[in-house]
Amino acid sequence: MEQKDSYNYKIRVDNLNLHFAANHVLKGINLNIPENLITALIGPSGCGKSTLLKCLNRMNDILPDVRIKGRVLLGDEDIYADDVDVTNLRKKVGMVFQRPVAFPISIYENVASAPRVHGVSHKGTLDNIVASSLAKVGLWDEVADKLHKSALTLSLGQQQQLCIARVIASEPEVILLDEPCSALDPISTMKIEERMRQLAKNYTVVIVTHSMQQAARASDYTVFMLSGEIIEACPTGEMFTSPKDSRTENYITGRLF
Ligand SMILES: Nc1ncnc2c1ncn2[C@@H]1O[C@H](COP(=O)(O)OP(=O)(O)OP(=O)(O)O)[C@@H](O)[C@H]1O
Ligand SMILES: [Mg+2]
């Protein structure tokens, strides 16, 4: 699969293969991810979307029986090189999961814990990071007067916004979102999509989604995967109006599951 376009790329995946024991899950993945845009990863359940996403910040490394071969470049840095500090990598490439994982501590602490881990201890600085991170995800106005209440008092949609704020507080370069809206109602989903659009001005965003509508309306670039391979990767408008591969067309029109 060849990508012919004129983007600046933030991430380059080069012949990436991943096995879970005998299961060959990612098969020779070559993919460039455009900088400061939203890339959607789509494809049927089990095709390897989450696994590929997790390879972008080395979240699969910790699993038993996993073998990973190939290269992933973040800018010029090979993130699988021996001398890479994985904690620092995950600060640069943050991840948000399907179910919001708000910690049972205050709203403030949920966000402040990330910069604190990275060495920020000055209260004024932490206050500023918390306020600006919450503002960037559109949650500040709703929580400004209850920062010290438990994060579990928030709605599920607000908790997901909080999780994104927590990632932002680490000042990442890339934000990975694995089906961030699948547990949310349509209004919360719309809020997250609006915020993603704002965030993409400053960050490279990669989102896994099962919703064709979400990919079509919220992303700039779309990658279609099938059985561990990338079938097609192109600007979103092109994918949804003139897919080049019949398998892509079958999937986006609902004829392939
Ligand atoms: N921790 C793991 N250990 C072993 N096999 C795994 C693990 N995680 C995923 N797999 C396998 O890897 C393959 C791809 O799974 P993955 O979760 O990446 O798919 P997906 O496209 O994200 O699916 P879904 O849309 O259902 O989330 C599947 O065959 C799955 O069983
Ligand atoms: Mg998945």
Order of helices and strands: EEEHEEHEHHHHEHEHEEHH
Report the biggest beta sheet as strand number plus sense, adding barrel if it closes.
6 strands, mixed
Provide the CATH superfamily.
P-loop containing nucleotide triphosphate hydrolases
Please give the alpha-carbon distance between the first and last residues: 22 Å
What is the tally of helical segments? Answer: 10
Structural class based on helices, strands and sheet pairing: alpha/beta
Shape: globular
Under CATH, the topology can be stated as Rossmann fold
Unreliable stretches (pLDDT < 50, length at least 5) are none
User: Which percent band covers the strand fraction?
Assistant: 25-35%
Bound chemical compounds: adenosine-5'-triphosphate, magnesium ion
- Give the second-level CATH assignment, the architecture: 3-Layer(aba) Sandwich
Taken together, the total number of domains comes to 1
Average pLDDT confidence is: 94
Q: What's the total count of β strands?
A: 10
Per CATH, the class reads: Alpha Beta
What percent of residues adopt helix (DSSP H or I)?
A: 25-40%
Strand neighbour order, sheet with most strands: 6-7-8-3-9-10
Radius of gyration: 18 Å
